[in-house]
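Hey team,

Filing this mostly as a record. A colleague (T.K.) asked me to run one chain through the structure pipeline before their review meeting, and I want the input and output archived in the tracker in case anyone asks later how it was produced. No errors, nothing strange. Just documentation.

Input sequence:
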Amino acid sequence: MITLTHTKALYRIPEAMRLLSLSRSVIYQEIRAGRLRTVTRGRTRLVPATAITEYVTLLETETLEGAA
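Output structure:
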């Protein structure tokens, strides 16, 4: 299991894009699909650090299940 070290509790979408190495369109696609959790503060959509870790774990799980 990979452990990500987060220095912040909440990330803006561009920061989440860099952390996950995903494009903006893929990030929003995963949000719409319910695979990447977000919160809103005013008009700003933020990705909690825990949601990033959960998303990476989900991807690892899917990879392992696909290999079995």
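Quick notes for T.K.: Strands lie at 10-12, 39-41, 44-48. The first helix runs from residue 13 to 20.
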